[in-house]
Write a structure and sequence with these properties.
Blueprint: E1 5-8, E2 18-21, H1 22-30, H2 37-51, H3 57-73, H4 79-94, H5 102-120, H6 123-132, E3 139-143, H7 148-160, E4 163-168, H8 175-185, E5 190-193, H9 198-201, E6 207-210, E7 214-216, E8 221-224, H10 227-236, E9 241-244, E10 250-251, H11 285-288, H12 306-310, E11 315-318, E12 325-328, E13 331-333, H13 335-345
Parallel strand pairs: 3-4, 3-6, 4-5, 6-9, 7-10, 9-12
Antiparallel strand pairs: 1-2, 7-8, 8-11, 12-13
Amino acid sequence: MPGLVMETNTSASASPAISFDICETFASFLKNEELSAPLAAILALSKLIEISDAGTMLELVKALNDGAEALKASTSNPISLNAGCELFIAFVTLLPHDSASFSDLKLELVRQGQKYAAEALTYRDKIANLALGFIKDDSVILTHSYSRVVMKTLLRAHERKRISVYVTEARPRGLGLRTYQELTAAGIPCTVVLDSAVSYVMDKVDFVLVGSEAVVESGGLINAVGSNQIAIIAQAANIPFYALAESYKFHRLFPLSQYDLPTHTPNILSFPLSQAGNVASPPTTDAIRSAPEKSSNADNIRQMTPEQIACNPGVDYTRPDLITLVFSDVGSLTPEGVSQYVVGMFAG
């Protein structure tokens, strides 16, 4: 589905129409590395209000819902941005106002959206300061993949305490290597751990610290794939599992399993079939191996093909009973506390 493109006049008099593509606008906001997907979505929807010629609240909400649908359709993982869309649309419908005209109301909504996004940029600092109290001197921490709020917290802890960090490689994107590079550059002792070696290292860590794509209504966590198995291993080893999440990532979603996630498709973890409908033959060695042969041991180094990677999930769901605490800008919450807070967020 292409991005929602609108054409509107800026005034009642004849004037050139303005073309607006919400997906391009969203992408332009994401170029700011400080902005996460939910905030970029809020700013894109605020821009939509600014150029919209809607004359009633019904028309405006419909335009916002259409814009949100276009954003969701533009990505294979809409979970995080959808949290921002839902939050902003709920705000628009519930905002009490005494504006003299609907045009004034729209201007106020735009101002409030921009103001919220600016304030939300401080949330990572709040979370880092909150989590700092749970990090003891000489702590050994395991983290997963790459998270801006986790990085903020670890760097803040390094300013005041001695910490060491294990980070998973987080295949297939390898974002754990980015975490390793940035922590090492900051002088924090850090070691990369194979995704398959998490249970091997778990007995050496004091707690697990991960970021989030979203925290759902049950109090569970959606995050980079591998988070769930880390949480399972941590619970088995009696190691605390902490999640860091800005409140704009709290999402009205209630998955019961991995297969309830919006990112799940029939292609994920499916068996390849030939055109005749039979199980396809395995790919050749040349198709599997992407690294050039630089030594006699090259045959022992294999990597997944892009097609194989595409058949795997990018995120997974961690049940609330596996999570010790969620640190957010609204406080340190148990999963039950998160559930209550999410319900209250959208209750008006």
